[in-house]
Amino acid sequence: MREGISRRSFIKLGTFAGITVMFGRLPLAEALEVHSGRHGLEWMGTDGQARYRWDAVRKVTGAKVFARDFRAKDLPGWPEAQSHAFFLKATRADRTFEGVDLSMLGPDLQPDRLVLHEDMARDGVAVPQPADLVTEFYGKDFLTPKGTTPPMYGQPVALLVYDDFDRFEAAKRMLRFEKGAVLYGQETGFKPPANYGAARYVRIGGATPTDPPEFSPMQDAVIWGGFDGDAPTWPPADGKGIFVPQSVVLKHRGGGGVRDPIKVAHETYEPMQRGMEAAVLIEQDIEAARADGDKFVLQRQAFSQSIDPSALEPDNGNAWYDAETRTLHLLIAAQSPYEVARVAALMVKGNTRFPVEKIELLSGTTVGYGSKDHSIFPFYTIAACFYGNGRPVRMANDRYEQFQMGMKRHSIQMDVTITADRKTGQFEIMKGFYNCNGGGRANFSFSVAQVAATAAQSIYYFPKSDLGSMALATAAVEAGSMRGYGTLQVMTITELMVDEIAAELDMDAIELRRRNALRAGYPNTQGAVQLGDPRNVEMLDRAAEHPVWRNRAQAKAQYDAAHPGRRYGVGFAQVQKDYGSGADTSALTLAFDAEGKLTMRHCVQEIGTGATTAQQVLVGRILGKVPDEAYFGETAFASLPLVSNFEPYTITQAQQDDLQKDPFWVPFILPAMSASNSAYFIGFGTSQAAQFLLEHALWPAARAIWSEGESGGQIASGEVTLADLRAFPGGIGGGGMSPIPFEQLARKAHEMGLVTGVSLHCFSRWEWARAEFDIPGIGHLTLPVDALAVRYGDGAPAALKQRMTVGGYDYIRRSNVQFPPTQRNNAGVTTYTPAACIVELNVNTFTGQVEIMQHHTLLDPGTVVVPELVSGQLQGGTAMGIGHALMEELPLYEDGPGDGTWNFNRYTLPRARDVAVWSQTADYLAPLSETSPSKGMGEVVMIPIIAATGNAITHAIGKRFYALPVTPEKIKKALS
């Protein structure tokens, strides 16, 4: 370990491809922002409620937080001096790249090192190709080879490295809009990679929603497609032989895997063929409904645009290759540091020009909205550092560069049909096809397309459905796992269509929704029943009684009369957003010493949602005390030496049954962070760890303390059980017993040699894995965890202490572990959060400008952990939704951001005046019970306001819009 960094500063992540990977955090490199470690508790109020985020003061006072704030000189052990680098990028994607011309820089601003593809190819520096991700997930080449056509606009073609910042900055500014620096040759047309995938979800239900279906993806199969050019192809309903799909990917955010298409074709051909037969029947039913006067068929084509996430921190990284020690040092901004470390090891494996034996990775807080989820940028940073001549190389996008090469939200073209009974308003069929533009790099595009298709039903039950999607490779800028993950686009269109159906049937729009809403026990369009009560009807009932909705007709008449040239409108929409990935994990260690100091090490990575605050509050609610020391973004736990094949979506049941014989094997190890997975999925593990200590440490200790004194103490005369315990700020009480401070409980637990520390790992595939553990001193337990280790207190017998050989813990080998079947992933999702929104606005009929006057959101967040964090997510999400509805838009090709000229002077974000910042309100449904879990809601809050805004515009001016955003120009054209 280098001088200035202690052995404890880095945690051994593991060995990948024979390379030792170490992980640390910025404060361990003398960063000012105390992101992890010992901290004061002034952020926690005396009532046990968080007063503000635990890291808030340092953030608002300008302390270093983000990786972008650091230079090599800030990092102990790194050289003082460092280099800086930037890319030249292709602004044409229809001609071959033939080289660069830097003559306009003159002799003084020439780069100290110019790197082209041929240099990297010679040196073995190549884009990593993880076997468990889709082919060319991170692209094919870092830089475009000479004589070939760039796969997309904004693709880097050359790397320029400078040893001093001033020359670097001057050259970068000079080349920013210089078209002549990149030389092009033969016109070839676009040459994107192969299309990313197509999938189809067909379901024909039984006689009632709860009867077994005739066909469903969960019961039978997802239908996988191929391509004929850019058109999807499907197994023929009456075909012979085997249809081999182009690709088969079972993946949602946070991980995944690839299955062999030929193998899948043989395994699922028969059910896929039956699915296509069902699709034919559905199409016949639609045509019959068109000819039936008692039925109404609405078919609409729609479009949802590409947007930029506009995250606070653009992509950046700093890397240093120390050839002497064969160590690669990384400082990155990423939503999944674990994934970066794992893939980085694969990238440098076997390189003889730049041999790497150890990787030391530093990470800090970041904000990405998905743009830093499995991004290629950290690997660009690694590639650049090999050309720093022994100095660290920093790469940091400015806003022009971020627009040019940062990941975008997918644009989606949609063709949707809904049939309904005219008399009852009951929906009967939904058929939709969703064409996602994935740009020139695969990333999660096919996964987004799959999620889009599975989410399109919104809050409604459809007896029959045929929902297909595809992800096309194009010359547009890469699109990835942006906030919303495809659901925002598709549910918006569904909600706009529901309002049009209500108008055609002369029915109140909320009443139509009420008649068709999913109830408890109803399956989704994949055939899975969601967790718990959807509460859709309850939310609709509450929305129907809101004064803005109830009085909308009278308010419109009055407003329009009083404001010539303006038209008043009210709109409503309700959706439900999934949260989770189908391979959700959580890992942490929670322990206390004899003085009562509580320490937590946790896998959660802060991305701006306040997850690190919420996890501590969860502990405080159960134990009566929040951690004194908290370490976040952990990527390895010495007490949990887990292994995985990283294929949680594609592993067969037989393979899983065989692998789980290894007591250290789990389907997936650590999660990538998204906006919605911390409260429920990651918080589940936190709650399990705290509850374990409550039951097996604090409760026995409290019982012993309450039993002290004559006649068995204060507890002897009553019947006090574990269920009677209640946390209070600072300790534990309940059952009428005198409250005991946490410090006293800790001393007693250590004296008694009880379990005083626990490490655990949880895994969910839309159902939590469970295992049995035989724990010394406790006995046989069945727990919803798949790995468990414990630490015994100071007073434990020597025999127990001798068991603590795995990172200072006793790793309890499980028995009878039950991992959920992989078939559950055919269902798409089972965890949802509903949200609704009422929007009041007016439209200027002369300018086409829309003014949001107020909006009211209804949300079911489950048990709220930190109310202020929910409010913050809600406010930010509604602003994002308004931007998507009315103003944010990026062209896809030659005039889009890939040309390098886009910045916030051209890209309009909503300001406070655009989002009714002083007149927005919200109503949270109370939990159904005190045991209701928290729900993921970081993404759903931005979705209903988009369709509600569109529906309000229709109410105002009588025109419907199915292409987003609804700009003033579109409104003026519609009114002309």
Automatic annotation (TrEMBL):
Coiled coil: none annotated. PROSITE patterns: TAT (PS51318). InterPro entries: Ald_Oxase/Xan_DH_a/b_sf, Ald_Oxase/xanthine_DH-like, AldOxase/xan_DH_MoCoBD1, AldOxase/xan_DH_MoCoBD2, AldOxase/xan_DH_Mopterin-bd_sf, TAT_signal. Residues 284-517 form the Aldehyde oxidase/xanthine dehydrogenase first molybdopterin binding domain. Signal peptide: none annotated. Pfam families: MoCoBD_1, MoCoBD_2. Residues 543-915 form the Aldehyde oxidase/xanthine dehydrogenase second molybdopterin binding domain. GO terms for molecular function: iron ion binding; oxidoreductase activity. SUPFAM superfamilies: CO dehydrogenase molybdoprotein N-domain-like, Molybdenum cofactor-binding domain. This is Aldehyde oxidase.
